[in-house]
Write a structure and sequence with these properties.
This is Antitermination protein NusG. Keywords: Membrane, Transmembrane, Transmembrane helix. The chain is of the alpha+beta class. The chain has two domains: 48 residues; 48 residues, no CATH class. The chain has two helices and five strands. The protein has a five-stranded antiparallel sheet with strand order 4-3-2-1-5, with no helix packed on it. The longest helix is centred in the middle third of the chain and has 29 residues. The protein is rod-shaped and about 90 Å long. It starts with a helix and ends with a strand.
Length: 120
């Protein structure tokens, strides 16, 4: 959640900085001998903001990938409570009506069956 807030804040700051960087059509008169130097904030601040945004996106992507590939224990309990099966599956391979176990077995289940998911 914190990463999402920081990412949103970084996008807003970059948008404000890009809008502030635009110049109106009328050019300011500058002496010929003095070259216009951008401020340190514009020079390094924008690079830092883009670097922060890139690192945030990379960090979130790696975290999401690792979370989806985590192996969990899934117990399928029938509505009568008599039959139950215990399987190992990756989090990303579990959907509403089916799952794929670590061994590659495709399992479909009905809406009446209950899933219990335990992280190892």
């Amino acid at each position: 959640m914190l990463i999402k807030l920081l990412l949103t804040l970084a996008v807003i700051i970059m948008g404000v900085l890009l809008l502030a960087k635009r110049e109106p059509n009328a050019k300011a008169i500058t002496p010929v001998n003095v070259p216009a130097m951008p401020s340190l904030w514009r020079r390094y601040g924008m690079r830092g903001a883009f670097l922060l945004l890139g690192l945030s996106l990379l960090g979130y992507s790696v975290w999401y990938w690792r979370d989806q590939h985590k192996v969990v224990t899934v117990t399928i309990v029938s509505p009568a409570g008599v039959l139950s099966g215990v399987y190992k599956a990756r989090k990303g391979d579990i959907s509403e009506a089916k799952m794929v176990t670590v061994e590659g077995v495709h399992i479909r289940f009905s809406n009446a069956e209950r899933l219990e998911i335990l992280e190892d």
